[in-house]
Task: structure prediction
Amino acid sequence: MSSFISRRHIIGGGLGLFTGVVPQLVTGCAEGQARAARGMGLEPPNRRGNIACGGCSVTERNTEGPYYRSGAPFRSNLVDKGIPGVALTLHGTVQSIDCMPIAEALVDVWQADGEGRYDNDGTFAKDSPLRLRGRVRCDKTGAFTIRTVVPGNYLDGKKYRPAHIHVKVAGAGHQELTTQLYFPEDRYNESDRFFLPSLVLDMSKDDQGLRGGYDFVLLPNRA
Result:
């Protein structure tokens, strides 16, 4: 188990890490999602649910930042020709606090390129096309996949921000979530004023390159 995974389990599960509760919560979350998928005649997702789902705690919010633009196109591949950066597949699920998938939830993503540049940070002409922005609908199991790149670091005042991806997540009957996803072992994580360990991606690698996984858990609408 990596040092990052250990920190995340401690934060998400507290003393449960030492009592055997955390593994049960993770398994319970996965089983709940698998049951829902089978009930709809679908194959269950390959990823296990995260601690937030099993522990009935929602994904933490994070600042929207200054670079959001509404009306991003619906597309699962954000990488247009000439955009710098290491290829990344961002994938995961959107779930309710009782571990059920939120079908057709909307995932809205925007980020810097591999050199730390946004399309509206003043680097490019004001009429330049949208770069590294897009929206996708989750499938019936609440799953989504987006092709993008690993974002670069950039100066925020006098400090560099760690690599991060901005996300808005919305699902029927649930409160919209605005947050950011971070990368493990980025040297600027610990000094960043917005960084939260619970928002770090689970990284892996396959024959197509890097993969970053995250399972979002949304609050229900207020009564």
Remarks:
- The radius of gyration is 17 Å.
- Residues 57-218 form a domain with the Protocatechuate 3,4-Dioxygenase, subunit A fold (CATH 2.60.130.10).
